[in-house]
Design a protein that fits this description.
- It is a single chain.
- The chain is of the alpha/beta class.
- It has a single domain (4-297), classed as Alpha-Beta Barrel (TIM Barrel).
- The protein is 44% helix and 15% strand.
- The protein contains twelve helices and eight strands.
- The protein has an eight-stranded parallel β-sheet.
- The radius of gyration is 18 Å and the shape is globular.
- The two termini are 35 Å apart.
């Protein structure tokens, strides 16, 4: 039984870091993640550097990594200009993003949901014409920091629109980490009725400690692709001080124990986690990484 892991640490994780992370460190991190057996890595973002200065060196990072033919590297893009930069950097896959809640979408993209669809449709059309694959992210599926509960029909509609644009996979996100396993089953079961499970992925945050439990719930529904971040990088901007994305080390450890095949070497993965923790100079949230480093010191 196989599960795909999409490593989002170099993008979704590092974009939230306050301290500058060197281009060289990002390059080393990506290479270490690939060496650990990860075959899908979101390497950076081509969003305007004014919005996300931490990832302003996207071109330099992609120029410096050791490209592997059996790895899909991708980047987040907001518009055609970002897509063109990604293509020029050698990427064959990009990711689009929008929210399932109106207020979050306005604050995150500065557009209403209705205004966002044509923009994403144009980007998808141009990317597909260039032979690129397009992935989609839907934020705030399980809760919005401004509106609270988000109607399931919002997420179903956004997912449907993205798939209609030619997106090959839609990642359903618990952006602020409020979801519980019961809610994940209820939401996923309804969205799965509209589309095949192999075209859906789960993107969970561990803000309230339910991240891995939510993965288990999504597995029960038939989801087999999950986003995660090395070391648990990516603290939630709407919950200061809270843990962010689920940790790749924790996810791999759990899946291994459940007899799922991830193709990831946990020991090599822990080396990558220890590396970026050292670079950042602070302890990361990953519990498996903490246990490993404590055992090494003992």
């Amino acid at each position: 039984m196989k599960v795909q892991i999409v490593e989002v640490g170099p993008r979704d994780g590092l974009q939230n870091e306050k301290e500058h992370v060197s281009t060289a460190a990002k390059i080393q991190l990506i290479d270490k993640l690939v060496a650990a057996g990860l075959h899908r890595v979101e390497a950076s973002s081509f969003v305007n550097p004014k919005w996300i200065p931490q990832l302003a060196d996207a071109e330099e990072v992609l120029k410096g990594i050791t490209w592997s033919s059996d790895v899909t590297y991708s980047a987040l893009v907001p518009n055609v200009r970002g897509m063109e930069r990604a293509k020029a950097s050698g990427l064959t896959e990009i990711a689009l993003f929008m929210s399932a809640s109106e207020t979050h979408n306005k604050k995150n993209i500065n557009k209403t949901m209705e205004e966002t669809f044509p923009v994403l449709r144009e980007v998808a059309r141009e990317a597909l014409a260039l032979g690129m694959r397009v992935r989609g992210y839907v934020s705030t599926v399980f809760g919005c920091p401004y509106e609270g509960a988000v109607p399931i029909d919002n997420s179903r509609r956004v997912t449907h629109e993205l798939l209609e644009m030619g997106v090959f996979e839609v990642s359903l996100g618990d952006t602020i980490g409020v979801a519980t396993p019961k809610q994940v089953r209820e939401v996923m079961e309804k969205i799965v009725k509209d589309t095949a499970t192999e075209r859906l992925a789960g993107h969970f945050h561990d803000t309230r400690g339910t991240g891995l439990a939510n993965v288990a719930a999504a597995l029960d529904v038939g989801i087999r692709t999950f986003d995660s971040s090395i070391g648990g990088l990516g603290g939630c901007p709407y919950a200061p001080g809270a843990a962010g994305n689920i940790s790749t080390e924790d996810l791999v450890y759990m899946l291994n124990g459940m007899d799922w095949d991830t193709g990831v070497n946990l020991e090599r993965l822990l080396e990558a986690g220890a590396f970026i923790q050292e670079e950042l100079g602070r302890e990361l949230p990953s519990k498996v990484l903490k246990a490993h480093l404590a055992a090494v010191k003992a």
